[in-house]
Amino acid sequence: MSAALVWMIAAIVAVGVEIFTVDLTFGLIAVGLGSAGVAAAVGAPLWLQAVIGVGVSTAGLLFIRPIALRHMRKTAVGARTGVDALPGARAESLSEITARDGRIRLRGEVWSARLDEDVTSDPIADGVDVVVTRIDGATALVYPVDPRL
User: Fold this and answer.
1) What is the set of domains in the chain, with CATH numbers?
2) What does the pLDDT look like over 72-82, one tens digit per residue?
3) What are phi and psi of 102, to 5 degrees?
């Protein structure tokens, strides 16, 4: 079996591993292994094949991978996710909400809630639409939606 074929089989195995990990590490190693295979195909000595394979893989991991991951994981400017996206969301009260406790259905989930006393101090009956002002731990601070809106 020729050295070029061995390098290419190793590259294909690395691509297979990359398909399951999806973190660009084995994909870039596969590029290095493929480069070593090309070097072997053109008749380079074994030590040069190894240097080319390691060099291309290392360069990819050090320079290309960080840039590619940054672009892959980038969220839109100003995009809010997780609990940061909840203030301003509407919910429905499931029980009376007071300054001490209550329950709401927020985006399909039941949350503990209490009044946002900066906005109102009047208890909210169950079945009333509310707006989340902020999240305090695992509790949503809310106020009633103005029925005129």
Assistant:
1) 3-72 (no CATH), 82-144 (2.40.50.140)
2) 877 666 677 67
3) 160, 175
